[in-house]
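Figure caption, in words: inputs first, then the predicted bound structure.
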Amino acid sequence: MSATSAMGIYNDAGDSVITVATGATVIGSISLGDGSDQLSFVGGDFSGVTTFDGGDDADVADTFIDTLTFDGSSGLLSAADVINWEMILIEADSNIAFDGVENLVTANLSSTGEINLQDGSTDDNLTQIGDFNGGGTLSLDVVADDGSGGADTFTIQGDLISGTTVLNIANVGGAGGETTGDGILLVTVAGNSPPGASASLDSTLLIPHSLAVT
Ligand SMILES: [Ca+2]
Ligand SMILES: [Ca+2]
Ligand SMILES: [Ca+2]
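Bound structure (calcium ion present):
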């Protein structure tokens, strides 16, 4: 299904599979109700979507697994408008930026694309309630100094499943400096981090002890 609508997308208690392809634009709210719903933006435009509601809740116990996929679609999201998904997939060729400074995503998240918090300010915090599967790029603003200048942060409340996520760092006015302790905290994993799951710096910018994955 290719959707172009000025009234959003609605689905009943059944399972839906919706693909928004290149050239299609969704405007308004999306509400998919009960069932296991799959909504994929494959080149489609989601800039006019006001609410992405996968339906029911974000608990897998009811066996409803709602999946929101961005594949070749890029844009700005406010996490508060993205609700009731059990899984969010950010595929390669998708750059997803987050609006505002505090974003809380409640879903398991898998990204082989780009999660982008770069806007020239180091006040952005993205927190994810769920497990994270890496492989893509995480773009952050950092003041590369002794650690006092601040940095955008990404916090994973669940487990880091697998994959190497490349950290793309933009230095926001830092003049360098020697950090102490854990350095500049960028990524926190509250759950488990198995061997093979990691983050690495993709930059010639050197921040001593900078990469703290805890
Ligand atoms: Ca449904
Ligand atoms: Ca759901
Ligand atoms: Ca930022």
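Residues 1-99 form one domain.
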